[in-house]
Design brief:
binds 1-(2,5-dioxo-2,5-dihydro-1H-imidazol-4-yl)urea, single chain, 9 helices, mainly alpha, UraD-like, 164 residues
Length: 164
């Protein structure tokens, strides 16, 4: 999508384009309302701080669209395409796949939600190391990490969306 098209899209079309980046309606609405943007860099920098302080309810809603690391979604939605691209560098040999599965399970038992990490640019080994470290976090610390990772993923997706 070109920035000009995003700037001039109807509010509902702009909302539909942004929502796959992260399904936090407050974030989407703030960005849609702040158009027009002079450059993609301006848009991304606005998005980096828009709708601060995502609540637990907002995070839980957004996380429903993120498959587990190691589970590549099969569908053809924009989110599934993005997620596959982000996870394409994660090597899932039988051994790492098993460790990721076990780590995901442990994380879900401890925190009650899917383990989320910005996967783009990270190897399976880096992800496993981070997962094991994060298991030591308190639930409050972990909420902050999840919000930060979701925002990182959203900004990467936004850049991908607006790439000319
Ligand atoms: C994902 C995903 O779909 N993309 C990404 O960067 N991380 N999922 C996850 N559970 O962390």
């Amino acid at each position: 999508m070109h920035l000009n098209d995003f700037n001039s899209a109807s509010p509902s079309a702009a909302t539909a384009a942004l929502t796959p980046c992260v399904d936090v309606p407050r974030w989407v609405e703030e960005i849609v309302a702040a158009r027009s943007f002079a450059s993609t860099a301006d848009l991304v920098s606005f998005a980096a701080t828009a709708a601060p302080g995502w609540t637990e309810a907002e995070l839980d809603r957004a996380l429903q669209h993120h498959p587990r690391i190691g589970e590549r979604p099969a569908g053809s939605s924009p989110e599934a395409d993005m997620s596959r691209r982000e996870q394409s560098g994660v090597d899932t040999s039988a051994d790492t796949a098993e460790q990721l599965l076990a780590g995901n399970r442990e994380y879900e038992d401890r925190f009650g939600r899917v383990f989320l990490i910005r996967a783009a640019g990270r190897s399976a080994e880096e992800i496993l190391t981070s997962l094991r470290l994060r298991l030591k976090n308190t639930p409050d610390q972990e909420l902050h990490v999840v919000a930060e990772q979701l925002r990182e993923i959203a900004l990467i997706r936004l850049e991908g969306l607006l790439r000319p």
